[in-house]
Amino acid sequence: MGKIIAIANQKGGVGKTTTAINLAASLATLEKRVLVIDADPQANASSGLGVDINHTDRSIYDCLVGRCDVKEAVYTTDTLHLDIVPSHIDLVGAEVEMLNLPQREYILKNMLASVADDYDYTLIDCSPSLGLITVASLTAAGSVIIPVQCEYFALEGISKLLGTIKLIKKKLNPALEIEGFLLTMYDSRLKLANQIYDEVKRHFQELVFKNVIQRNVKLSEAPSHGLPAILYDATSTGAKNYLALAREIINKN
Ligand SMILES: Nc1ncnc2c1ncn2[C@@H]1O[C@H](COP(=O)(O)OP(=O)(O)O)[C@@H](O)[C@H]1O
Ligand SMILES: [Mg+2]
Question: What pTM does this model have?
Answer without folding.
Answer: 0.97
